[in-house]
Each structure stands twice: as structure tokens, then as C-alpha cells.
Amino acid sequence: MGHGALREAMVVTARRMNTSGLNQGTSGNLSQRVEGGFLLTPSGMNYETMTPEDLVLMRFDGTHEGPRKPSSEWRLHHDILVARPEVGAVLHSHSMFSTTLACLRRGIPAFHYMVSAAGGTDVRCAEYATFGTPELARHMMVALEGRKACLLANHGLVAVGVDLPAAYKLAVEVETLAAMYWRALQVGEPVVLDDAEMARVFEQFKGYGQ
């Protein structure tokens, strides 16, 4: 089996996705890079009853091993991890506010400086394609260019990180931004920070934290 600690951490993170409200039911999925491929949550399993042994080991050639079928969205995880060597984990969820904006096919502009957490001056919304298809993965990769998160039209949210905690933290941040943006839109059109200000924000964050 192998990767015991990583498997345990994935189960904990998957359950946390639901208890925190970042995800619901068996929707959404999670992956973690390992040598030669990645661990992935199985298709259609309740996270509360899922065990570390249920996680699927996917190889980069698209084959897999283990007793369970891989998530139908395995291509999203595969394509990111192949193209982005700095990414160690990928989180996909159907979080409420990110998905609401995605159903409007509306990304998140720089209405708040914390949009920079996703790596750029906005969080893009990828073009629509049927779930589980290569087309969806291609559209997602375009939206993720130069970014660490994006929305999927009429679908949900994707966030990446160097590890599971980083991917989860970013997903929570993007969902929070989506909630704030949605609320602001109920009153009017939010003021968007310009590129010059966002450049200053990126400089400020270089020295942020301990």
C-alpha cells in the first residue's frame, strides 16, 4: 500500500472539506503528489466512511491501482501535476459561493487585495465543459496559467498548493473572497483595484509574516 502518513492526511483533509462547508456530500476531490504519480480520492465515496486504503494510486500514464475507481475528475489532477512541478496537492470543491459565481461564469476581480493569494490580479473562470472530460481539463489549465486557483464554469473551484495544507488554505481563502464578492454585488458593482496597486500588494506580501 505505502504512503501511510499521506493517506491519513488526505482522509483528514477530505473530511475537513465537508465539515468546514467547503464541500458537500461526495462532490469534490483531492490529490497528493507521490513518486511516479499521485494519490486521489475515489469516485462517489462518503468521506466520513472513506479509509486511507480507499485512496487510489494514479500513475501519470493514466493507469491506477487499488480496490476503488478513481474520481471522475482525475484528469484535472493529472494535468496540473504533470504541468506544474511546484504543485504537490490539488483540491477541487463545489463550495457554495465559488460555485455560485461559476454558474454566472463570472471570475473574481481584484475587488480586494487578498485576491493576490491566488497568484495574480484575479481568479479566472474557466470555460464550460462536461465534468470528467479532457476538454474540461484543458479549459482549466488555461484559466490556471500564472495562477494557483480558478473557478470552473457551472461547476466549482480548483486550488493548488505545495502540499495539502497550502491547497486547503487557498481554497478557503478563495471561497471567502467569493462570498464577499457575491455580497458586494448585491449592493452594487465593487470598486476594483488597478494593476499598479496590485503590484504594490505583491511587493508588500514579499516581507509578510514571520
TrEMBL record:
Name assigned to this protein: Class II aldolase
ATP-binding as UniProt keyword: no
Domain called Class II aldolase/adducin N-terminal: residue spans: 8-182
GO cellular component, one term: cytosol
Keywords noted in UniProt: Lyase, Metal-binding
Pfam families recorded: Aldolase_II
GO molecular-function terms, A-Z: aldehyde-lyase activity; metal ion binding
